[in-house]
Amino acid sequence: MICSNITRDADGTLRFAGQSVPALAEQYGTPLYLMDEDRIRFNCRMYRQALRDSFGDAALPLYASKACAFKQMYRIMAEEGMGVDTVSCGEIHTALAAGFPAERIWFHGDGKTDADIRWAVEKRVGRFIVDNETELLALAAEAKRQGVKQKILLRVTPGIDPHTFEAVNTGTVDVKFGVAIQTGQALDFARLALEQDALELEGIHCHVGSMVFDESVFEDSAEIMLGFIAEMKEKLGFEAKVLNLGGGYGVRYTEKDKHVDIPARIAALADFIKGRCAALGIAVPMLLLEPGRSIVADAGMTVYTVSTVKHIPNCKNYVIIDGGMPDNPRWCLYRAAYTVLHAERGGGETELFTLAGRCCESGDILQPNVPLPADVRRGDIVCVCTTGAYNYSMASNYNRLGRPPVVLLRSGDSYIAVRRETAEDLCARDL
């Protein structure tokens, strides 16, 4: 199986986190987001231990909220000692509503409005990751108005191509995020930050992209970022105490994807950073990483009921389900690959089908050319694996469809973390 928390019984029944998927579908209905809470906690602990072992107790993983955010997720992150990376006031509000401590929130984003900045400073969010000079000056003015010394990191771009999909490549010079090092603008950005009395510059941040499997990408990023820290020390008299290298470790969506040994990668990264710091004559900074996908992706599975099976001779076969692009838009956006499984039968004769959604949209495809039982029929249960990241968080109400519930699986039990959206919910804000 694609992940160790997915198994089959001898009769072909699919199990996720040890629980019968058909039984969960019957109990909660479909479409249905399932999330393995034990796997989420395991992944958090893996990151915390790996960073602690390699960089010391000060090192901290920040959960990238945009991967999947709801109140119970923030409660889990708080209990596991994680920081969180947020990109909107909505994410911050959700975290605070769940009781997550404000001082362990980092606020990202390249387009923060004046209202965003004012509200986040009022809520005493721990750190802003400042994207550009315009934001820097607006934040400095607001912090001064509120009498706050706001801690910040500066987002800079190292000019790294992580060889990933263009839409999730964020580290090159010509992206909308951050300020480029190689143009000289980042040094001016740091100089301006140090001139602001209401701001406390702690360090620098970069993020080169997502779904990174190349072993050298983080070392390449660190090489440039550490060089920039040394340049700031020489030219500005400021030595950064914090280095945030962002996130991006890839996960296995299909059998073709490689397994990433994250603790081993972090240990190798630590050896590299310590060696370069010694050579550059700078102190080893406090290291932050921002895992999101690699915390929650393999903790997720989406469950559907088959509505229609269509065979088009000498052309294509379709399995149409009761969900679609509103609950998982990633194939439409990125041509993202997924593993699709029948929940009740695992053997026997198969055919290739395109798994399609119910929307009035020819592009409503979840996955083309997937093997399913040749006798798949209306009422069968099928599942898409590794959907814990960027499915619920990207879900929409296209075609006026309600979003599925999120059900967490924990130690053989299950509970609703986000209830199913109803028709009444869809009309609740209409006047």
Structure characterization notes:
With 431 residues, the protein is α/β, with parallel strands linked by helices. Helices cover 30% and strands 25% of the residues. The protein has twelve helices and 21 strands. The protein has helices at 21-28, 37-55, 71-79, 89-97, 114-122, 133-146, 185-194, 217-236, 262-280, 293-296, 330-334, 423-427, and strands at 6-8, 14-16, 19-20, 32-36, 60-64, 83-86, 105-107, 127-130, 150-157, 179-180, 199-205, 242-244, 286-289, 300-312, 316-321, 340-342, 350-356, 365-373, 381-385, 406-410, 413-418. The strands form three sheets. Strands 4, 14, 15, 16, 17, 18, 19, 20 and 21 form a nine-stranded mixed β-sheet that branches. α8 links the parallel β11 (199-205) and β12. α2 runs parallel beside α9 (262-280), α5 (114-122) packs across α6 (133-146) and α8 runs parallel beside α9 (262-280). The termini are far apart.
Write the layout of secondary structure elements.
Blueprint: E1 6-8, E2 14-16, E3 19-20, H1 21-28, E4 32-36, H2 37-55, E5 60-64, H3 71-79, E6 83-86, H4 89-97, E7 105-107, H5 114-122, E8 127-130, H6 133-146, E9 150-157, E10 179-180, H7 185-194, E11 199-205, H8 217-236, E12 242-244, H9 262-280, E13 286-289, H10 293-296, E14 300-312, E15 316-321, H11 330-334, E16 340-342, E17 350-356, E18 365-373, E19 381-385, E20 406-410, E21 413-418, H12 423-427
Parallel strand pairs: 4-20, 5-6, 5-13, 6-7, 7-8, 8-9, 9-10, 9-11, 11-12, 12-13, 15-17
Antiparallel strand pairs: 1-2, 2-3, 4-14, 14-15, 14-19, 16-19, 17-18, 20-21
Helix pairs in contact: 2-9, 5-6, 8-9
